[in-house]
Predict the 3D structure of the following.
Amino acid sequence: MRTLGLIFVFLGLLILFQQFHPAFIEPLYQYAPYIKRAFWGVTFTLLGLYLLTKGALRRLILAVYLIYLLIYLVV
């Protein structure tokens, strides 16, 4: 639950920062269609990798997916 709370705090701060300084996220806007179209492919690939691996590599895959999800939600 603590990790989920940190993710929500980070997402909220990122959205607020985007509102006050839009130039911060502006370089990602040119890639927005590609990020949105690749969502299910990235999701299923990382889910498969998550289920096939163990230990610390699982945490890394989860972190990569959370970063992708945050970018997807903000862009």
Notes: Helices lie at 2-20, 26-29, 32-37, 39-52, 56-74. The mean pLDDT is 83.
